[in-house]
Amino acid sequence: PYSALQGYIMLTGKPILPPKWVFEPWAGGGMGRWSKGPLKNNILEIVGVIKIFEELDIPHSALYAEGARPDAKLFSEAALRNIKLLSWEYPAISSENAAKLLSNTPFEELPLLKITGMEKFEKNPPSYIDFTHPKAIDLLRSHWKERINAGIAGTMVDFGDLVPDQAIFFNGQKGDEMHNFYLYYYTKSYNYLFKEARGDDFVLFQRGAAPGSQTFACCFAGDHSATFVGLTSVIYGGLSIAACGFPFWG
Fold first, then answer.
1. Confidence bin at 224 (pLDDT 50/70/90)
2. Contacts of 245 (CB under 8 A, 6+ apart)
3. Do the Cβ atoms of 40 and 78 come closer than 8 Å?
4. Can you tell me the distance from the alpha carbon of 139 to that of 144, in angstroms, rounded to the nearest whole number?
5. What Å distances lie between residue 72 and 31, 44, 47, 77, 148, CA to CA?
6. What global pTM score does this model have?
7. Contact, 117 vs 136, CB < 8 A?
8. Residue 224 gets which letter from DSSP?
């Protein structure tokens, strides 16, 4: 197994080595956890948690702040305690929003997947970003500008496993051919975005994966249940993905 894994790594690429703070404890929660907390305000809720960690002397290096806007108070309170803030992302964006973000790009040249026949399944099928398109990184830069400038230190790169089979990519391939490798281009694009802004001081954690995406991102276990049975499944999943060349997971 060891030599097989070494061969796989030589073929597909060595795993990314995250910064040291990534290996210290994190905390956090989804948008619902913050917006539905007792303070009914996601910014105040996150700041309150950060302050309680300090009061109780519970060290954390990062906090997953899903749904938090780039609020100056939130980022200053986190920076004061040397806590990095992490975000969430989904590889879809409305065509209207994409057109606003790339206002100088003709609509037909937007970096979105061309999908036909989805109308019979969904009234408003999602507009997936086509990460094989040369304008995809321009869209990401514009979409993330506020968060990057505020100091976001990384993000979950969620989903990426739902691209319809009939989607047509800029590189000429269809969704059924690109199924796993959509994750490769997805994480590669986000790695480029954060590396451009923060050097090596960031972390990405992916739910899906493809051969080679270990060179761009770490992994997380997915949406398991918050129970001991769920924890067991996380351990199984983590050991399995580690044996597949993804050593950094949580």
1. confident
2. 5, 8, 9, 12, 15, 214
3. no
4. 9
5. 19, 12, 11, 9, 13
6. 0.94
7. no
8. -
